[in-house]
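Section 5: illustrative case.
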């Protein structure tokens, strides 16, 4: 595969979706062939799984069911969308990937890290992002942003503050463990400043 896989991660309301879109626009302006997708979802099957995973009325879902559904959606996504795009030499930008499962289901749901890692390996056949951008900001700020949208909170957004604190801590621990792959970006600043910083790192480290 000759393309590049760049993933965006972070807590709820961190701004990753906004920054992914800005990066896609900037890279396309330079002539880059860019594909944008998201998880869970990205395929017809994955989108159906996404609807179930985020359904605010599905609160009876147990952690094991949840992690298996994420893995199923990811396996379809990788096989149907991500790998073909990489083989075409495209820059693939994905809103959430395996690190989300490690943070949400592994750390916050307290599932065994080895199990989470094994499911990631099975779902992706060992595919690892070339660069992971982690938008970091305090949980209170992220949740306030989510609340300001005026929309009904999905099943994960409804979780406790301590749950989201565990997710944030997991992302920061991941960045410390894998500093070459992970780029932590302070997410409380101006959107344009953040976008320029991300673009500079991508141009230097991935898109050459």
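Designed sequence:
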């Amino acid at each position: 595969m000759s393309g590049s896989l760049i993933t965006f991660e972070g807590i709820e309301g961190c701004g990753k979706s906004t920054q992914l879109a800005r990066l896609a626009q900037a890279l396309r302006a330079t002539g880059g062939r860019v594909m944008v997708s998201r998880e869970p979802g990205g395929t017809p099957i994955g989108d159906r799984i996404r609807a179930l995973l985020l359904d605010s009325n599905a609160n009876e879902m147990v952690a094991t069911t949840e992690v298996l559904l994420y893995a199923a959606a990811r396996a379809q996504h990788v096989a149907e969308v991500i790998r073909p795009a990489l083989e075409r030499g495209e820059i693939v930008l994905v809103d959430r990937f395996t690190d989300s499962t490690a943070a949400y289901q592994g750390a916050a749901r307290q599932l065994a890290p080895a199990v989470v890692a094994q499911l990631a390996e099975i779902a992706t056949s060992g595919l690892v992002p070339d660069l992971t951008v982690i938008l970091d900001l305090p949980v209170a700020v992220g949740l306030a942003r989510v609340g300001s949208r005026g929309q009904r909170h999905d099943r994960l957004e409804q979780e406790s503050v301590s749950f989201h604190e565990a997710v944030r801590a997991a992302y920061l621990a991941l960045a410390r463990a894998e500093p070459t792959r992970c780029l932590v970006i302070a997410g409380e600043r101006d959107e344009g400043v953040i976008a320029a910083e991300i673009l500079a790192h991508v141009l230097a480290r991935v898109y050459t």
